[in-house]
Amino acid sequence: MKVLLLFLALINLVSFTVCGWDKYAAIRRRWRVPERRLLLLGFFGGALGLWGAMLLFRHKTRHWYFAYGAPAMLILQIAGLLWLMGRLA
Known about the structure:
Helices cover 82% and strands 0% of the residues. By secondary structure, the protein is mainly alpha-helical. Helix 1 packs across helix 2 (35-57) and helix 2 crosses helix 4. The longest helix is centred in the N-terminal third of the chain and has 26 residues, at 2-27. The mean pLDDT is 96.
């Protein structure tokens, strides 16, 4: 369980950082992170970091698949984590 929590902490930190970098790059008209990559980071456990970065940096909030997708992924990830914790208890 500790390994899973460490993985989730790291992937959320990466997801938050990458989304912040994409916002920085968007402002400066530089190379952007593909939306698919941002969504994959969220899908594989980084939904909290992605959603937090979206709200903090006001980034990708107009795209419906981010505005609804990140919270939906987060809810599913929390439910899965709670289920897993119940199974291991």
